[in-house]
Amino acid sequence: MSAEATNPEARPDARPELRRRGRTRLDLRRLGRAALLGPTSRDRLPDAIGHVAEAHRAHHPDADLSILHRAYVLAESSHRGQMRKSGEPYITHPLAVTLILAELGAETTTLTASLLHDTVEDTEVTLDQVRAEFGDEVCFIVDGVTKVEKIDYGAAAEPETFRKMLVATGNDVRVMSIKLADRLHNMRTLGVMRPEKQARIAKVTRDVLIPLAERLGVQALKTELEDLVFAILHPEEYEHTRALIAAHAGERDPLPAIADSVKAVLRDAGIAAEVQVRPRHFVSVHRIALKRGELRGSDFGRILVLVGENADCYAVLGELHTCFTPVVSEFKDFIAAPKFNLYQSLHTAVATPEGFVAEVIVRTRQMHRVAEAGVVALGNPYAHAAAEAAAAAESGSPADTADCDEERVDPTRPGWLSRLLDWQQSAPDPDTFWSVLRAELAQDREITVFRADGGAPGTISLPAGASCIDAAYAQYGEAAHGCIGARVNGRLTSLASRLSDGDTVQLLLAQDASSGPAADWLEHARTPAARIAISSWLQAHPDSVKPTTAPARAPLSVVGARGGGGNAVADLPDATVRLAGCCTPVPPDAVAGFVVRGGAVTVHRIHCAAVAQMRALGRTSVAVHWRATADCRVTLLAESFGRPHLLADLTEAIARQGVEVVSATVEPPVEQRVRHTYTLQLPDATGLPALMRAMRDVPGVYDVRRA
Length: 707
Fold this sequence. Notes:
This protein is α+β, with helices and mostly antiparallel strands. The chain is elongated, with a radius of gyration of 33 Å.
């Protein structure tokens, strides 16, 4: 049996402080115990399921409760005679799990599957019986939960167990909702286990299940799991935090008075809002204590403002920032830019005349429901498909029947889950899968970048801190082995460059299909897909590893005509004039001249970075102007893929523009890329843009720029 238990009142961590104080929703633990301690005899079945039905009707007033009663009858009769390790009837466990989900607002199908989630694994009930009695949807979910229930908490079994869990979650996120509620009830009743097994289960919960709860947006489950894990793995810090909260309970709490002031401000502004004080849970208090040191009264909770519409959120924010002193650094807008787990709210902080700083969260009631319950609040993601199938059946058209063994794609599946499902198939061994899974789940923010090529899909979702390497493997898969560079927002950059939310990325692939990644790509890859693909290629090609450092490039310099022989003239008689190689100015660029050692005048474009350095060094500034002659000398850098006859083709393109090649340098190839440096004499500076376009049109050339 998957559920481990003891008497809730007897476990060591059953401290009253862990219970939520002042929460807007009902206390799951209190209701759970009320349901579990009720009679379990056959003549009291309606009373045993009564708390679940009441909680379900609070969210779904029109729900059909008959299916829940039938599911309870089957579960109770199937589990009859089975006991938990605490000595309680086993039926108390699926009842408690279902009550947790009902309080979060889960729809009827999820609750039905929750009541039955252990029947196929632990009793004589079969999937065919579940399908015949409750339909394909319930069967599919029960089967998904059953596949991830047989957990051996040994280190060797954990990777494959959670690989199954990941696949089942991808097929239907309701499977993970039931699993999280199942783990929460087991964590509440973990005291019967030996301390070492408690710690082992708590570590797995911390490393995988809590991050999954965060990613699925189920904050109500996540916060309680965090507190329970905190009490087991960090008992000293837990006791210290408990003492802080207990000491605060005996002091005057400033937050209710601040909340009353907020209510008055919003009432005067004509904004209909509900204002609450939400105490922080244990782990949150601990984190604030680490961040701020000594805690003040307003640090033990936050003010929550609930409104009706999105526009009201910003109206509330305006009033708060007008009537109180805002702490600008604490403002975050998760409505305009929601988190990857569906979370939306405005976060701010305001200071009162008494010196207290109160954190304020502003959201609509719908946002609040999603913030608490996450994917559970979304209901049945397949309702639309089911409606279409029913319509097809009525019309006599053939329709596909759901199969418990069939894999299907959740239409609401978030991008991070799709990435995990993709790379887990190619994870070479359980240890790699386990370590990379925990690293991926530790990422708490996601960015979206846009493809410059206009391909579908037009966006790529990546974890925060991802590089161009990650984008390449997300877009091209193993074909990204041949990636040699990228343009980010139109500018050429290295593959190691980190991406920001909203960047536009164009990835450059080599024409040589046999090319592969460099060893140092692993240092810059953040996504599991990229790291696994790079590692696999390097292991398969040990003799083909590219050098991690590029060979030294030749120094670039351009020397203009001296004295009156050039087209740049300095207002300093008999001075030698040099055009700076760092920016290669040409007419009609705005330029600045500076006297350097030897009395020569170096000419830079006015926006060149060297100009600021020259001024900082106190170099003498000299006025410079262009001669009336139109010819000029310029240095151009051309970046291209390596291929035969490229130098000849580029030279021919330059000659067709009537330009003289003064000198040319071709550097050794690096990652299939070749860099050419040309010093050119143009008959007319106005022809420079046309020359650069002609060079870019040469096959294989992907960038031409001035030095």
